[in-house]
């Protein structure tokens, strides 16, 4: 069971949302009042924040994927050299300050996204590597973030964050693939995508309202009364039976509440240490007018979720495949998808660079959060992915990708890795996922179309 | 068959009466009165079991004193002398210490062992010779005393409902109940850890069904999982077979139902031609030969009903076929071909082929007559814009039954098309000009956007008749009854092109949207009920999937991406990501801006009208869905109350109703959940409430023993027979307070046994009774040695006894069939496994095989038991024999001592000995023999079955099979037939006795107690008088006071 981030009904009637948000304001006002400095539950064993450094492996490892669609300006998508001496192409320039923690991954291959026609078939398996089915019934595969989420479900408040800056759609593309494949990169199983939250305010609530656990708590509260009233009527042996029930309910409740309490305790601890690290106010209701604000807020939510260990897995669909986003602030007239058909023009260079700057923003945020000897970024792996190498050619034979963060010292960074000339089996995107799964502690023999990790990663 | 042989134990009355020394030992007035009271019991009424309430206490005390004396003077000295050496302080052979067997209380506490003790002494098996044999008189006296004491005690409390404590549902019950509550078989407990079984082997008692926090967590998750299948509808809610979480889930659910509805409809024209032919060639019912209107009508209706056709449409087709006009065009051709079908009703298949040929002709010609509808175009707009695609869909929909004369303009004499469609070539009418005729009134298009030119001239004669023929042809045979999938039409691809599988799609590019186009089906095929259903399904589609809102969001996105129409700044306010984009204000604003640009770009009136209509329609649809959402909330709450009522399996109290509603309100108001979330969480809370997943009906609510209420009884009955909640019928009689009437109760029991759901009784009762409940997961067979043992063969083996059992139950057959039947049930795989001949192998599915003289028939030879009781690579006569003794005959055999010598695990390692010889050596040890003598021989007779239950004549080590055996008591027999003969002749009573006890323990959900003995006797007697009818057992149980009452809080 995964707590849902949202439901259709709550999205579709604005009146309802407003009401919902008003009623939960009090809880959040409190957060805001204290400057919101939520601490880190896994540090409970440490005396105070900033005390003796714990072993690095004690820090949680996180994984996030940021997705941009329809290719990049490939002529400006390059890097040379290594570490601080690395030289970056124009599109990757926003990563300049963090290039020592950056790896460019060129030439990766998602086989099932090739030879199936353009767009949806090239997208719906970007995190799964699965073959996709055409027609009205969806069929693909579970995505790597959800494999991680399933594994970590009991560890954090939210198994995963699945966010988007563009609303999903589900019509049919001319290739007869459903547009759902263009809209969703996170899939909970072969047939269902994970519902994606598009509203920053609701995404924020899902984290800090502890909606999932609060919902279970309400339910458990109610049935305790039932058991009590039933118990009052019956004999001693029946009462013992119902006591068994009540005890079980209480235990489950404790588990439900525990993580929340720990988060609150940690918040206090962090405040005591005088080092509030990262503050975020609840975003306004409704959708940010400007896509820049929208993306920034979503990155902030991922950052604060990672920092407070509310979740360790996130995906952020910055734009959908065949995106209709438009960028007046870049001076670009065409919408995203249309511009991608002119992907060697300056407009698309601007767009590509803008998307990389979103990743740079998130990475910088995480890098400003100390954790142990390093930062949250050092314990994370952020992956930037795109479904095409060239938007004008709809070429998905190579996946533009780069990673940021050392994932708790398990990834050597500051490198340019080019797999373009390797055989297909040596450059599979799913091999990269196997490598990441392994380092996140979810070792597996195979994933998607790969049965070996990525050489040299 | 001869009934009842000497019953060697446990039937109380018989045994007791046969005992000597009664009066001699205890001539006491009190005791005689006890006997007299007891003598009236037997198979009389339930209340006959019970003592008069008033005098109970002093009498019981006095009785206890008498029994105490009897035990002290007669029984205990005997035990001390003959038994304590092995079953006392120094040794506890068979884990039995008889020293506590000295009090009246022990008769109840250890009642089963006491029975066993008496039985073994009576049979002369104990004490063993080396312990010093007591003389016969002493032995009989002791046995008599034990039996008398037990009987007296049993009768004193006969009918006691016994200790049944409230408990959670077992996993099986949970799954069945969820199935019956939600209507979908979700089996949320499938992955739960296996429930432990109680002493009787069933997992339906409070003692074994415990709850732990981690299990509670699973139940919570399971309830959440179930709630994710919730589908809210305008008139209530349902549960889908798959989770309904994302938009695509909702689409899948709502679309599939509509497509399934369409596919169910009778739209094959050949069926109608054929039905009409049958009417034509079958003599009239009254034999008058001449058709009379009334009788033809009746026959039309009758044959339509028989064949699942639409009576209305069959009538239309019939009228056309019988009509003298028109004489031209394809309609005339259809009629001619149909009349050309054979006149003899015996030529049915020839006629059928003919009808199919007529149908194919109609389809080809009709497709040729489809109008060509052009795209609407707008400067700067996209051909695939929603307003244009919908406009075009509207045109197609409006023309499904219309003849458009232009469609045949290109068919000229001598052309290829005239060759292919001779019936579409207009008649040669040289006097008339080329112009087509004025369309008749009925030919007017209802839509304003008609295609025909309006300035056609009146034209009499053949051409007019030809056109009239085509008009009628197109009217009767639509170009489609309904459209269930639609690709993009505006791109001018062939329909047969790649865009298949877009179910109900409007045919947009990349955008979602549905379009309903089923006018001809609706008008000509469906009856009122069908129309109502399809209207409802489409309303529900919009309601469930939010289709209009999503379609409109797609529109806003498309107009900027594939289309560049909305890239002007004036449109920037409308963003697909913004939920308020579907608000009325924003739609109106966009409509205005969109239209203004169309005007600027020189859009035609038709284009502007299409734009206006699009915005007007989508706004109306969105408002209508939103209104339906709002209006349905109170309906959903009513449905929620009903759901709770069903889930709790009893009427809710007013307070409970209010509490549930206020819980829902607090979820909305305090927790800020949406309506749907609050509904889901309310359902979760119901599903983990003890009122749902505990058997609250079992809990005592009063101090003293009392009859069950109607609802408690309904629960008890349905969890006994179905392992699930009461169904509507049972609930209705419980609500009406009728269920406690014996005839009503028994009628329900019979109905329930005969129903599909009694499958649960097979699985949960018979599966556990026969110890194969987990056979479908059996992994002890070496598949390298036995490659034919596949998962599906294993499943077939598993099902055979269950199907056999169910057949007996549903037929209300004899319980003895389990032993002596001459039939069994097989599917193809099992028939092959059993080496049956081709006539059985070639049949599809499961079927009964009678006269199974091929070593099968009844339970004993079934492969599941032979396989489950083998030792991997060899058979195990010990396990098989033990199974027969334990499971069929109810023998209680102590566990083997820890130091038993092992037999080799592979027959091939036995060396020169056969398994039988090896076992015989084994029994040379006296300590082994005491028990093994009781069952080894039963298993040896089954040596003709190999380790996976196949018939064999030699074992895998190459030894010839020796299936001769000397059964307990000295009877000799050979093979499975010998064993069956022995069981029937000498052990039938043991079998019957055990079956009764097992079914009773299962039905009561508890271990049997001493006071159940009279009921067991009564079950047996009734079974015998009613020809061993299985249902009689169930009826005895459900009408017993054990079943109909429950103990009080404080005392029995």
Helix-strand layout with pairing:
The complex is a heterodimer of chains A (457) and B (1052).
Chain A: H1 8-12, H2 14-23, H3 25-33, E1 62-68, E2 79-80, E3 87-88, E4 102-108, H4 120-123, H5 144-152, E5 161-164, H6 180-183, H7 200-208, H8 211-233, H9 236-272, H10 291-307, E6 313-317, H11 336-340, H12 346-367, E7 370-371, E8 374-375, E9 380-386, E10 399-404, E11 415-418, H13 429-439
Parallel strand pairs in A: 1-6, 1-9, 4-11, 5-6
Antiparallel strand pairs in A: 2-3, 4-10, 7-8, 9-10
Helix pairs in contact in A: 7-10, 8-9, 10-12
Chain B: H1 12-17, H2 22-25, H3 29-39, H4 56-82, H5 104-109, H6 111-122, H7 136-156, H8 171-182, H9 213-227, E1 230-233, E2 236-239, H10 247-264, H11 269-281, H12 293-307, H13 311-322, H14 329-339, H15 348-368, H16 386-398, H17 416-420, H18 462-476, H19 519-525, H20 528-545, H21 547-558, H22 584-600, H23 605-648, H24 654-669, H25 675-687, H26 690-693, E3 706-707, H27 710-721, H28 728-735, H29 742-754, H30 759-769, H31 791-811, H32 817-820, E4 824-826, H33 828-833, H34 838-841, E5 847-849, H35 863-868, H36 877-888, H37 915-922, H38 926-932, H39 936-940, E6 964-966, E7 972-974, H40 975-986, H41 988-1004, H42 1013-1025, H43 1030-1038, H44 1041-1044, E8 1045-1046
Antiparallel strand pairs in B: 1-2, 3-8, 4-5, 6-7
